[in-house]
Write a structure and sequence with these properties.
The protein is 53% helix and 0% strand. The chain has helices at 13-22, 25-38, 43-50, 54-67, 88-99, 110-121, 127-136, 153-162.
């Protein structure tokens, strides 16, 4: 026969209940598991109630007994990722630069924005990253629609106004 888990008296049952209800969502289930074991329920019954295996419930109780209430905190490491290439001042500078003409006199493109960012930060920037930053700042790449070299503007205007000429009789 297995022996019952015992929970160390770090907190009284009312405080365990209060902390289980007030805990952040990531910690709430762990507090609930310890509270249910403290009420006398076996780990095999608590596990399915909280969505943990009985072995994990036992590990939580051992962790709580050894470290107290602080041991139930979410122990996963959070990686917020790298800092963005441009801070608030850099974003404002890019927005101001894109408002003017491009360095080569043409239109701003992703690779041109990436070259501008690389010159400002001193870091290598992939050409695609420039387009990402332009979209992040809600700046669209504006290019004129392509025009065919041998298009007849007069024929295009006539088509817009009245449609195509009537078909010729055969």
């Amino acid at each position: 026969m297995s022996r019952r888990l015992s929970v160390a008296p770090h907190l009284d049952p009312n405080e365990l209940h209060r902390r289980a209800r007030a805990a952040p969502a990531a910690d709430r289930v762990r507090w609930l598991a310890v509270r249910l074991v403290a009420e006398g329920r076996p780990a095999t019954a608590v596990g399915p109630l909280v969505g943990f295996s009985p072995e994990w419930v036992r590990a939580l109780v051992r962790r709580y007994n050894a470290g107290g209430p602080a041991a139930l905190a979410d122990g996963r490491r959070r990686n917020p990722g790298a800092r963005p290439l441009l801070d608030g001042e850099g974003r404002a500078a890019l927005r101001a630069a894109v408002a003017g003409p491009a360095p080569d006199g043409g239109l701003w493109t992703g690779p041109k924005a990436a070259a501008w960012i690389a010159a400002r930060t001193g870091k290598a920037v992939h050409p695609k990253r420039g387009g990402v930053w332009l979209r992040r700042l809600d700046l669209s790449l504006r290019r004129p629609r392509p025009r065919h070299g041998s298009a007849d503007p007069a024929a295009q205007e006539a088509f817009k106004k009245g449609g195509s000429p009537p078909p010729s009789p055969r």
